[in-house]
Amino acid sequence: MAVSLMIVGVGGQGSLLASKLLGNILTAEGYDVKVSEVHGMSQRGGSVVTYVKFDEKKVYSPIVTAGEADYIISFEKLEAARYVSFLKKGGKIIVNAQQIDPMPVIIGSAKYPDEILDELKNKGVFVDETDALSLAEKAGSSKAVNIVLMGRLAKYLNIKYDEWINAIENTVKPKFVELNKKAFELGYNYGK
Amino acid sequence: MSTKNKKLMIGNEAVSRGLYEGGVNVVSSYPGTPSTEITEFISKYDDVYSEWAPNEKVAMEVAFGASLAGKRSCCCMKHVGLNVAADPLFTLSYTGVTGGLVVCVADDPAMHSSQNEQDSRHYAVASKIPMLEPADSEEAYLFAKSAFKLSEEYDTPVLFRMCTRMAHSQSIVEIGQREDFKGYEYEKKPWKYIMTPGNAVKRHPFVEERTEKLIQLAENCEYNRVEIADTKLGIITAGTCYQYIKEVFGDSVSILKIGMINPLPVKLIKEFAEKVDRLVVVEELDPIIETHCNNIGVKVEGKSLFSKIGEFSQQTIREVLLNETADTVKTETEIPVRPPVMCSGCPHRGMYYTLAKNKITVLGDIGCYTLGSAPPLNALDSTLCMGASVSGLHGFNKASNNENKTVCVIGDSTFMHSGVTGLINIAYNMSNSTVIVLDNSITGMTGHQQNPTTGYNIKGDPAGKIDLEALCHSIGINRVRVVDPYNLKECDKVVKEELSADEPSVIISRRPCVLLKYVKHEKPLIVNEEKCRGCKMCLKLGCPSISFKGKKAVIDATQCVGCNVCSQLCPFGAIEREVQE
Questions:
Q1: Packing angle of the helix pair A161-171, A145-154 (nearest 10 deg)
Q2: Given CB 3.0 to 4.6 Å as the disulfide criterion, which of B27, B200, B210, B457 pairs with B50?
Q3: CA of A42: which chain B residue's CA is closest?
């Protein structure tokens, strides 16, 4: 059965680069891969979701539906909760502990549920929580949150560390390679 | 298989690669999600002429001209774009082609980024033009590569249908070489290309004969295939639905997979129907295949089981055909929605704030600026289709006495697309209308494409630049004003003056999109906590950078670009530029 991942977050946080990196590394590993993503500027600031699926056999559907995701990589706390129904029993959530208020919260018509990750944990959901924004800033740019989280994901996937580094070198623009390698390393080693 | 030529591609890239290898020479398109990337990828090939046209009708007619000249051509658009291009499409069916001509159209089931959910397959049926529909990137590549030959062999344009999931999903494609296509010598053929009634009456029978021949092709071709397995359940399907069925059933049901959606085969379907006990059609949106089956006397289940609305998934298939529901984790806490918003520093915001503050009725249009309809700005009263803001405003003003309180807003690219004709109507039929062009110097919503007002072409090279002010003047609009939407006072003054004027006017609200690479961002603003009294005036802008923590406003330094619009609103001068350290 295919391994299903979801990358969720707020439009503009860089999920396309994360899915590109994953796509490249999984293809290089010889898997059949499908990725379904969000394009254009239309989702700026909105909730965005990208699906990545891979298998040694053929992958058919490019999308992930309720109860199917082995991993949800969330770039923001609220988004992790929004898509939790997609998580498979025993699946893992890897989340950036950042809070980005959606417009209904900003204008006071809704409340941001501060304790949302605790609720998920209390339900027995595996939650790997990282302050990816601080780590990204430490690596040199707040934009590297995506790669920090890929570093966290790498802890759980059966792909060699060096393969990830190769994929980063082949995926990001040359001038950002060092920054992203650093971001990946910080994510990978977080909490050690 | 060697991995060298294998690449993970989104459907749109695969289409462009197929067209390229199939020998395409000329591509003209108007951007529209989810079709845009086909043309963007094509533009990277230097041996193909590509361009952004002002609209889809122009694009299709450019493709027609190139085909007439003997070259292989293509135009790409989203589903609603095909409405704009429907006029040439229907008669292109009669003229046929010289060089192969492919029309790529991308539907958007579930309306991820569209104003309706129309099913483009109806156009194929209505215009009697063959339509291909792939089910993954590999097929998208193969079908596109073969489409020019199909077009030339049957003397017909070919419709190529994508949908959002196809267009924006990546799967592995093994690419090949470009066909060395030199083109056909131009030959004058008035009987074929001058569609006067006398010629057209002779071409219509040709179209009907062509359809008969295409049905023969559909019975036995590379596009349609039968996968016979267990025969208790047989499914006829096309596009991504095929993937959902395979995901759920694997090789345990029999499938007739349709790749040429128009015309549909007759014998192939009848034979398949005879082999299976139960026959179900799985298709998103409208019952095109199902209707065909009914017409040829084959009994199927389709829309009695499946919705005409939205996108399907493997979950849909499981629920409908297996009665299985997913076991999932749910939260008790309500999760606030997160709608897309105008960016921090978006130049549209200042103009929208001005219009909302003055309680002006605003007819809107299609683009990023449609997001101004959302709270807290709630600045729009209508959004119909490309260009409808300008023409609609004229109608609104002719029908009411509210012209001093009503404007329309339209982006620079949308104005070029079909707003300018509405403005001609305002000038010609004389309504006292106030048109606001939100000129952010790019086609924003589809991801930054050049347009006739930007001065650059699809490859980023310098190109002709339409002067908006001169264009409006030449149409006969005397009052043309330019304002900077970051200057709230100026916006307010100009809007009030133009609304009270006794003649039509155009206000160009001009500032480039804040996401353009060349736009310099200022240092983030900060809230002086001592001065902030928590009045929440700044929240009226709906800027994603400003929120409230406790009783004071805070500005998110990672998002703020220092546009300074909020500071003009603060009655206590609490929003300040960060002091240089």
A1: 150
A2: B27
A3: B445
